[in-house]
Design brief:
By secondary structure, the protein is mainly β. It contains 4 helices and 12 strands; from the N terminus they run ββαβββαβααββββββ.
């Protein structure tokens, strides 16, 4: 079964010729601009929408889809999430980029002592960088900046993350 990952949302129409105003994930503009098609989920089915054109407009993208040529065609899609197949996202990940669902559940260990500190329960972004939420052995939740200096090793295969546990970071 194909897995889909959300890459944006049709937040409104743009003009009367069927263009969509699309919100997208931060720092993903280049990826979105490279897409030839996306999927929209309607009535529990994924329907492919081929992209005719994309252009930047302030903090949104203006997207024209094939076969959607009027405001009446785009209005039913307002509020719909846009998806791509997971494989497409994976092909475009850099070496040190991961999908959130790959990180959630990984065990977190101290890079020096190899002592288990907890496990990842989520990923968020504070505007400057990504943060991993770690539930520690004492059941507290700590936010760790997901940067190479603090998180030098992410081993998806062995379900393990190593962190440089500087004073005050965890427990």
């Amino acid at each position: 079964m194909t897995k889909y990952i959300s890459v944006g949302k049709i937040v409104n129409f743009h003009g009367i010729k069927g263009e969509a105003r699309v919100g997208y994930s931060k720092n993903q503009q280049v990826f979105f601009l490279s897409l030839e098609s996306v999927f929209v989920k309607k009535d529990n089915e994924y329907q492919e929408l081929k992209i005719d054109s994309v252009r930047q407009n302030k903090n949104f993208l203006i997207v024209k889809f094939e076969g959607i040529d009027s405001i009446n065609d785009i209005i039913p899609l307002k509020g719909c999430l846009l998806f791509v197949e997971e494989d497409v996202v994976r092909e475009n990940l850099d070496e040190d980029e991961f999908l959130i669902d790959e990180l959630v559940g990984l065990n977190v260990f101290d890079a020096e002592t190899d002592k288990k500190l907890g496990f990842v329960i989520g990923v968020s972004n504070n505007g400057a960088n990504d943060l991993i939420s770690v539930k520690t052995n004492s059941k507290k939740i700590s936010l760790i900046p997901f940067v190479k200096a603090i998180v030098p090793v992410v081993d998806i295969k062995n379900k393990k993350i190593l962190v440089n546990n500087i004073e005050g970071l965890l427990e």
